[in-house]
Predict the structure.
Amino acid sequence: MIFSNAELMLMQLIFEGPNKTGYEINNWVKKLGYNKWAGVGKTSVYNGLNKLIANNYLKAHLNSNKTGKGPLPTCYNITEKGSEAMKQDMLETIGTARERDQRFDLTISAIHLLPKIEITEAFSIRRKFLNKEYDRLSADYEGQKDCISEGGKLLYERMLMSLENELKFAEYILKQ
């Protein structure tokens, strides 16, 4: 993965709405609930913006159209390098994320930014990955079933059910 969860979220927001200021981005994070379900807060927003600029994924400029008191706000735009890296990161996430992964949720929330053919390819890879994980976990569970506690059995069952649901979701996307 190229980006942290916070950086991926920032790239997605800026890709969809160029020339956003840090203040506007923070408001969007709160409005969309990223601070609750993706663990992204004010500090991670500004740290992420600085890191993305330093790595040439974003560019910043001062908004000279501001009126009123205070310093000129900094506006952010995604670079071509940033756009390509974001799409690559999202496609990799689709193919390799485990069940109930915040990064996968971030990617799904912005899946419309990816070309349909690449979504299909990534979900085909995901289906293979999840099937392999399901088979591995099932074999592991069967090998330990007689010697683990009831709680351990329930944990295995929960993980297997989660994988089954992820497989259903992958099939749903592939049928779209």
In short: The helical segments are 5-16, 22-32, 34-37, 42-54, 80-96, 102-109, 116-144, 150-175. The first helix runs from residue 5 to 16. Residues 115-175 form one domain.
